[in-house]
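worker-03 picked up job from queue 'complexes'. Input manifest follows; two sequence lines, order preserved.
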Amino acid sequence: MRVVVARVSKTFHDRKGRDVVALSQVDFAVESSEFVALLGPSGCGKSTLLNIIAGLLPATSGQVCFEGEPRPGRPIAATVFQEFALFPWRTVRANVEFGLEELGVSGIERVERTRRYLDMAGLAGFEGKYPHQLSGGMRQRVGIARALAVEPAVLLLDEPFSALDAQTRTLMMDELLHIWESTRQSILYVTHNIQEAVFMADRVVVLSRRPGEVLDQVPIKLPRPRRESQHADPVFVQAADRIWGLIKSQAQAALLDGEVEPGAAG
Amino acid sequence: MAVERLVVTDRTAFLRRPDYRAVRVLALLGAVVLWEGITRTGWVSSLFLPSPTGVLAEGLDMIGSGQLAVHLVKSLERLGWGFGIGVATGVSVGIAVGFFSLADAVVQPIIAATFPIPKIALLPLLILWLGIGEASKVAVVALGVFFPMAISTYTGVRQADPLLIRAAVSFGAGRWSVIRKVVLPSALPMVFAGLKLGAGTALLLLVAAEQIAADAGIGFLILQSGNLMETTRLMVGIVVLSLLGLLSHWALGGLERVVIRWRHT
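worker-03 finished. Artifact:
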């Protein structure tokens, strides 16, 4: 399925009643089976945009639509959250089952799908643990398995690995790519990390600072499967430089501004 | 040149709180022994302070004759009904008020206005409405339990993590699913805090109500024994209340550990 984001704008009202334009006329699409990274400096409204696509926040104007064959019984989007957002009172297995329960999948199918995605995310043997018993990396594996289990048309990831340490992040990126190679699931991956975006995506949509607008869309023509050695590939370096060129001045302005993206936390 | 050597010492030593386990037991035991000793010397008349062994003997006697059971069963019945009704209504109202802003707008001011009333003051009114029988005593206990339950549950519901609610909604959960699968489990620790508060209030109101209008029950036993100067029987009643309080606290703690497993494992 194709995700089309058409002229989406979002205006917040700050505490003094002033309008803050977070997103302005954002236009782009995620093709079927494509891995798209949405990249921008802090305060560019990328989490806001992801929430609008997930249906968790209304857009002020414009619309998001999903085009393609109808897929009964399968949701349009599932989200992997930066702060994991696991239910602490549910075991690993029950967390992964959550979306299936809400979809009305029951009996043997629920058990089997849960097991399949637990295995895929490398959680075999951890089914009975509670989230607080797991490391950050394992928790986010649960988050990924929970989202994959509902087999959504598009998988939305909101800075999924930014709460993890650097080594774990590298490993988790590899694993996500590995899963994507086998499922070819459409992915929209929000990040502020250029290396991460270039390494993983087919295309990087670069957003400007507030008001967030699409600055450019950079195709990444690195062969797959991606390898860590490609970090030194001229194609990689050029793409990363081009993106950094686009957002450097914006990131500097964000640094000096020090304001937090409205609505990002809530 | 002289060389100085300064060894680093642990400067937090005085902040440590060792767990004096044996002292806990000995302190309680010591208090009882002291009490027994004072009564044995005869400095204090047993009419004012009966000895622990005397209270124990009287208690066993009352258990044997079945007198204690009569009072205890009556009290437990009232306590059970009152506590049950108070918890059920309190939790329901707490969830509704915490989750639906309309219910919040309607109920919040009413609760704020009625909460400060000492519930025992309502007993005469409740007797007028419900009669002198069981209903008025159950009602006053239920009222006393309702408020801490409703307020704790409300607080628990308001503390539910908005991120978890959004996550549930993103996976297709509707209003009732969110309440059942996110809001309620989030509120459980506060619900248990309310249960513990409510258990204490329930015991207090039960005894007060039984001392005002009853012909059986632990509260009645204490009042009647006092009137007849039967201090030993009176003390039996007080010990039973103390045991009831301890037992309910212990039972609720155990239940909490089972229900909120995910916090303790």
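worker-03 released lock.
The helical segments of chain A are 46-54, 92-103, 107-120, 136-149, 166-183, 194-200, 234-257.
Residues 234-257 of chain A form the longest helix (24 residues).
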